Amino acid sequence: MNPPLTFPLRAGEMPTQWYNLLADFPEPLPPPLHPGTREPVTPDLMMGLFPESLVAQEMSNERWIEIPAAVRDVYALYRPTPLLRAVRLEKALQTPAHIYYKYEGVSPAGSHKPNTAIPQAYYNKLAGTKRLATETGAGQWGSSLAFACSVFGLECNIYMVKVSFNQKPYRKMLMQTYGATVHASPSTQTEFGRKVLAETPDSNGSLGIAISEAIEDTMKHPGTKYALGSVLNHVCLHQSVIGEEAIKQMELAGEEPDVIFGCAGGGSNFAGLAFPFVRRKLKDGRRTRIVAVEPASCPSLTRGELRYDFGDTAETTPLMMMHTLGHNFMPPSIHAGGLRYHGMAPMVSHCLKLGLIEAMAYPQTKVFQSAVLFARSEGIVPAPESSHAIAAAVDEAVKCRTEGRKRVIVIGLSGNGLLDLAAYDTYLSGAMKDGPEGV
Ligand SMILES: *Cc1c(COP(=O)(O)O)cnc(C)c1O
């Protein structure tokens, strides 16, 4: 008979507070800087874009922050998310390792992103915001925010990178189903978009252009605020529910993780799973290895520099101290696997600097090979992003087999890949390639 596969939490065991690693860093995080003066940014500068409550969370050093009851009520639609033992994957790999995965793909939008979209919409509603503006690439963030806005009765205006708008229509339809308005960016809605269109009428758009449009939209419409789905401290904070639940679920499983793998694009799902375990390393002296896995074609942690850089191409955001490939970096066009951001959350970058986490990079064909193995053994089709963590876990499990050692491995499975089947099709048809240097 198989060992137990799931470790359900009871209602009273759900986290009621978010965990803020800023309170426990042995060295303080370098602050964001004003791009003009290069002085640390003041709260009032950020309050044009975000409500005061979220600005306060962004800068807070409180270790525990209460999750409002209204947010917990919405979390209850899909939380706690399951932690599963991947018994069939273990068998397929013939490994003595025990492999677990924390699955965020059960949320309405299919990823971890509603964990922050819900509180962001809630705090905006409370502050009297009528409308949120944001950008989205492939649409995971846009659909999460559209869902959260529908719950709290806010309008939602989304600038979606044009190439995705045309090539990946399903998440656009999902956003519209939740009631959001979606514009292909560059759009005619903003001065910046019109300028880009005048210069390059057939522009495919980019995340940088879409961010600039969403920020301009926010500044020009009274009652509108801006929302960001990764990178920022308050986003990492909201995602900590993932790791807090996982700690309790691993206790129910009666096992202590030796190594944790999470994928990293902007860093938010990785932070959410990892930071509560980082706390235990700092406080209880545990030796858990915690590994961020990124694409070899967009390797900000493994090949980027740690320095101050802009969050966007148009140089409108504050400067953040982070691992970066440069704010003009474009991932190679062969890259199909998501995780395209040039930078990395300052908090995740700081963890790497302090030696609290490690980082690895994987080429996309290896990622999809592991994704298909996972789908065929566990049944879940993983998001291409999440599959970076699976690929690293598979290598670790194979190492356990060759070394004849049991280890307990935890994978952060940030989402499902049901709206990413076109990328699977590219892989299965043999058309997917790695870059010149094996990226
Ligand atoms: C957006 C997304 C990511 C990347 O964002 P992070 O901020 O690095 O977590 C990873 N996985 C899934 C499923 C996503 O939707």
Describe the SSE topology:
Elements: E1 17-19, H1 43-46, H2 52-59, E2 64-66, H3 69-75, E3 83-85, H4 87-93, E4 98-103, H5 114-126, E5 131-136, H6 140-152, E6 155-161, H7 162-167, H8 169-177, E7 181-185, H9 191-199, H10 207-220, E8 224-226, H11 233-239, H12 241-253, E9 259-263, H13 268-284, E10 289-295, H14 300-303, E11 305-310, E12 319-324, H15 346-353, E13 358-362, H16 364-378, H17 384-403, E14 408-413, H18 421-428
Parallel strand pairs: 4-14, 5-6, 5-8, 6-7, 9-10, 9-14, 10-13
Antiparallel strand pairs: 1-2, 3-4, 11-12
Helix pairs in contact: 2-11, 3-5, 4-16, 5-6, 6-8, 11-13, 12-13, 16-17
Bound molecules: pyridoxal-5'-phosphate.
Tell me the number of structural domains.
2
Question: How much strand?
Answer: 15-25%
> How are strands sequenced across the largest beta sheet?
3-4-14-9-10-13
| Regions with little confidence, pLDDT below 50 for 5+ residues | none
* SS element count, helices: 18
